[in-house]
Amino acid sequence: MRNQYANRYNPSPLRSLWERIKRFLTENSALSNLLIANIGIAILMWTAQSTVKIVCAFWNLSFDFHQWVWPYIAFPADVNTFLHHPWTLLTSLFIHNGFWHLLFNMVMLYVIGRFYLQYLSQKKFLITYFIGGVVGNFLYMLAFNIIPTFARLAPVASCVGASGAIMAIMLAITLYRPNHPIGLLFIGRITLK
Fold this sequence. Notes:
The chain is about 65% helix and about 5% strand. It has ten helices and four strands. It is globular and about 50 Å long.
């Protein structure tokens, strides 16, 4: 009888983790909404890609999802292509190239976003995210158009992911609170700067 009550009042670590995740995702913060948007769009893209593969295999059709869809959602390095697809400036911030790309970016967004929101507002967080992502995309385009080694690849190169936005958030909170302590595995406690 005693063990039955002990399990109810001392939940397992996994149950506790799941409860914290549910609470975080339902708090309707800018950070949780960006995480949900990124993960939701990734699941939608993977589902669409899998569905197209299954339909093509069933009907013996040839359709490369990546080749036909990517140019309309990824940010191009080529200026002329961008002028024909200006929406890619924002769509590319929510598209990731595989599970590990998404996982790493979302973990970084969560960790850095929590630091940021300890000191600054949610509105500033969203502004930093979008401005950082847009600036990151334009820096990508600039690099591919002025560095001779990359210039020949500019017509076919494109970028996706929230890395530019996340780096902007990291830079902003580091400039605002350079001595904020953080603990790193195998390294110990260091400051943000």
